[in-house]
Amino acid sequence: MTKVKVCGIQDLEAARWAVDAGADAVGFIFADSRRRISVEKAAAISDSIPEGILKIGVFVNASKEEMESIVQKVNLDYVQLHGDESPAFCSNLEVPYIKAVAVTKESDLNILPDYSGEFVLVDSGKGPYRGGNGISFDWEYLRDYQSSNHKLILAGGLKKDNVREAISIVRPYMVDVSSGVESGGVKDKEKILEFINEVKAIKTDSESGE
To answer: Which pLDDT score, from 0 to 100, does residue 5 have?
Structure first.
């Protein structure tokens, strides 16, 4: 079953909605974004999240020291890197990382094997921010993508109405949603529930015995 990450959590209420709906991971943004959260607030929310749900911090070109400090304060499981972080920089981190790759053309995927983390995240390269713009890219680029050493996280413009198609094409390990579960720029309880229910209702070929 495809896993779900709800990103851009900014308050305790939204975190509880995500947890109660069955999210497998939540994301806190510490980079330039309208969903940016303070370290102190993220730490307070993190304390309320049950064991077994991944807590992921989103960064763009932050220093190794800054990220490792925030990881400790917020008790993060992973850092998600949306900047120009090199494979060498990433492998030198003391914390698990997810390298995010902005995709505007199929050849952008060529960089993925260079990173040694357990996960890679693919997002649209369009929009004002390094991710979180609510814009999708051509999922067909990933129809035949296979990796022996990465679990793939799909992000970019996902919502209840298109996530089934996205999963059928890409077959990601996890989908990452933010703007697709918001109303007026704020997390929406019903949209979170509907999105997660939609994803969890989708059976992959391996689950359906095909």
So the answer is: 98
Burial label for 74, CB within 10 Å (0-12, 13-18, 19+), is buried
In this structure, what DSSP letter does residue 32 have?
Answer: S
Token pair in block for residue 73: 């304060």
Say how many CA atoms lie within 13 Å of 186 toward its Cβ.
5
Distance between CA 192 and CA 168 in Å, rounded? Answer: 20
pLDDT in tens, 170-190: 999 999 999 999 999 999 999
Separation of alpha carbons 115 and 91, rounded Å: 8
Alpha carbon distance 60, 5 (integer Å): 19
CB count within 10 Å of CB 3 equals 18
The pLDDT tens digits of the residues spanning 31-52 come to 988 899 999 999 999 999 999 9
Alpha-carbon distance of 44 to 8, in angstroms, equals 15
Number of helices (H), then strands (E), belonging to the chain: the values are 7, 10
Q: Distance between CA 171 and CA 50 in Å, rounded?
A: 27
Catalytic residues: 7, 123
CA-CA-CA-CA torsion sign (49, 52, 54, 55): positive
Please give the domain boundaries of the chain with CATH numbers for all domains.
Answer: 3-208 (3.20.20.70)
Query: Which residue is it, tokens 């939540």?
Result: 26
> What is the spatial distance between Cα 56 and Cα 48, in angstroms, rounded to a whole number?
14
Q: Where are the alpha helices (DSSP H) in the chain?
A: 12-21, 39-46, 64-74, 87-91, 163-170, 189-200, 205-208
